[in-house]
Amino acid sequence: MPDDRARPCCFLLVILVLRTAAAAEISLWNMAINSTNDAVVFRKTLYANTTIFMKFQGDPASCEGNPAFNISWYLRSSICYNEVFNTPDNKAKNMFGLDHMLKDGWSGFYSQGYMFFDNCSSLFLPKVYYSDFNPYQLLSSPKSDPSNRTFNWPDKPEISAVAKAWEDSPYLFLVKVQPIFRGVDDDELEGPLTFDFTMKVEMKGPHDYSSPADWPQMMFFMVMCIVYVLFGVLWLFWSACYWRDLLRIQFWIGAVIILGMLEKAVFYSEYQSIRYRGKYVLGAVIFAELLSALKRSLARILVLIVSLGYGIVKPRLGTTVHRLVTVGLLYLLFSSVEGVLRVTGGFYGTVALVANLSLSLIDSCVMWWIFISLSQTTRLLKLRRNLVKLSLYQHFTKTLIFSVVASIIFIIWTTKVFKMVDCQTGWRDLWVDDAFWRLLFSTILLVIMVLLRPSANSQRFSHSPLMDDDEEEEAKEPMLNEAFEGMKLRGFKPDSNGSQKQLSKEDEDLKWVEENIPTAVADVALPVMLDEEEEILKTKMERSKME
Predict the structure, then answer these.
(1) Which one, out of 74, 355, 416, 450, has a CA that is 20 to 30 A from the CA of 107?
(2) Which of the 8 DSSP states describes residue 170?
(3) CA distance 235 to 243
């Protein structure tokens, strides 16, 4: 049964980790323009009436021969998100001036214009580019050429404005810089004339520099930041009220809540920076990705130790601790590498592919381990007839099963809407692909918080060797009596009240230790025993009782 549950989880996480991740869209670029650049490509989703500004900065002395410049631009919208963002730069540059769609059904609009500057000095002066605000037209079919519909600009241009978006859509913006060296013959040139300046492009709309693809994501992080603050306040209140009864696993839960709150706050700050400044600080974004990787690593370890029954069924984890640390560090390493490469633009390299494959393998093993551990813990609690702890783990298991079913349904939906389509029109819902998984873990964390919340009865969930052993003996005693009915057991003698008592020197010594040495002192004084060895010794002892 646990293997059947683990297989869909492995499939789920392989797809989850290998999905295409997208960084936040910036709205301000400073591009170095020189004699080696032929065209520059910009990609972004824009709101309607978003204005595109273009400025040029530099030293007129850097233009050798004082050439004139013809700077032309081409703005193209598309209903297909993949046409704009998945077209390589070399192919996108060939689309300059294209007046028809790439495929039938990939409709959109286009507009183009040019600016002429007599020399470098006029290039660096702010001005109103009236000639650039020409009409935009509907793209024609590649097989036919019907008359295009023409639309006029609704208002007058602003200073340094070159174009304006006409609808909410993904846009491709291309710029060509062509120097014109007047009065210089090619035969007289000893080498190519050079020029060097900076072109600043910014796109500002109704929500400042924020794009329609990133605005819902920013609102989501704001809401999740508030949710995690409420989680933290609630957990702090519970911990303060019952601080004498806190369990060690409850400190793990508190640490994950704090990291989740910091992660959501840092990501929200990143999107706020893009909204008001047009770009983000690279160091802050890398810090956010590293913090997110740490939080996800601790989250997986938390679910694992709850599934293993640490502090509830087992007093210690033994060698399992080393495996937990190894898995956590490996996941932290590869998730950090994947996050940093994604925000720095190296997401499609070989190192990124290795990191993603490693993450998928680790996540698959973690999910398999979680369900195997849950199955073993639940079976042990059934044998011990501990109904309180058994009810807790049954609720936790149902929550994980629900999350797996919801994940599979969501993956089918995203694959159908985002992956297995020729023209990706649902670009407004792309933010859901990332938000769903964060919301899903927050739901699992809330369930863990409710099930393991600090209370006056918290100690009923903690591991107590004497209590658990007594319960186990009570569960086994009826089975022994039925199995050996009518037979005389060796090593037992009738007690004064008619019950049987084992005449074992080892058990008498253990009973004396339990009655005279406190548990806290014994944990420090006695050597740490591994859980696996304890189970083996207990099994051998039970077999010796039955012989």
Answers:
(1) 416
(2) E
(3) 11
Burial tier of 389 (Cβ tally within 10 Å: 0-12, 13-18, 19+)? buried
Q: Is 15 in the same domain as 59? A: no
350-384 vs 320-344: helix axis angle to the nearest 10? 150
- Tokens representing residue 48 in the block: 């309607």
State the residue range of the domain holding 90. 28-204
Are the CB atoms for 173 and 73 separated by under 8 Å? yes
Of 366, 344, 342, the closest CA to residue 355 belongs to 342
Please state, in angstroms and rounded to a whole number, the distance separating the CA atoms of residues 499 and 507: 17
Q: Are residues 152 and 218 in the same domain?
A: no
- Reading phi first (left if > 0) and then psi (alpha if -120 to 50, else beta), residue 538 is in alpha
Which two structure tokens, joined as six digits, stand for 389? 């702890």
C-alpha distances in Å from residue 373, one per residue of 231, 306, 313: 27, 9, 12
Integer Cα distance of 52 and 491 in angstroms: 92
The label of the residue with tokens 């007690």 reads: 495
Element (H, E) at 45: strand 40-46
Question: Tens digits of per-residue pLDDT, 227-286?
Answer: 999 999 999 998 888 777 777 778 888 989 999 999 999 999 999 989 998 888 888 888
Q: What is the rounded CA–CA span in Å between residue 202 and residue 27? A: 6
Choose the final residue of a domain: 180, 204, 228: 204
DSSP 419: I
User: Do 10 and 158 belong to one domain?
Assistant: no
User: Are residues 517 and 388 both part of a single domain?
Assistant: no
Question: What is the DSSP secondary-structure string of 445-492?
Answer: HHHHHHHT---TTGGGTS--HHHHHHHHHHHHHHHHHHHTTT-PPTTE
Q: Which spans in 169-214 are helix H?
A: none
Cβ contact 137:149 at 8 Å: yes
Q: How many DSSP H helices and E strands does the chain contain?
A: 15, 12
Same domain assignment for residues 165 and 245: no
- Based on the fold, state whether residues 169 and 85 are members of the same structural domain: yes
Query: For 61-102, how does the pLDDT look when each residue is reduced to its tens digit (9 = 90+)?
Result: 777 767 888 888 899 999 999 899 888 888 888 888 888 888
Residue-by-residue DSSP string for 316-367: --TTHHHHHHHHHHHHHHHHHHHHHHHHHT-TTSHHHHHHHHHHHHHHHHHH
**531, 534, 540, 543 alpha-carbon torsion, rounded to 10°:** -90
Question: What is the pTM (predicted TM-score) of this model?
Answer: 0.73
Structure tokens at 278: 């047009």
Residue 60 structure tokens: 């007129």
Residues 430, 537: one domain? no
Cα 240 to Cα 406, 460, 482, distances in angstroms: 35, 19, 49
Three-state DSSP string of 301-329: HHHHHHHHCECCCECCCCCHHHHHHHHHH
Q: Are 106 and 138 in contact (CB under 8 A)?
A: no
| Placement of tokens 């009655």 in the chain | 515
Among 204, 234, 268, the domain boundary falls at: 204
Shared domain check, 498 and 387: no
Give the chain's domain count: 3
Distances (CA, A) of 521 to 315, 465, 509, 514, 525: 14, 14, 17, 11, 6
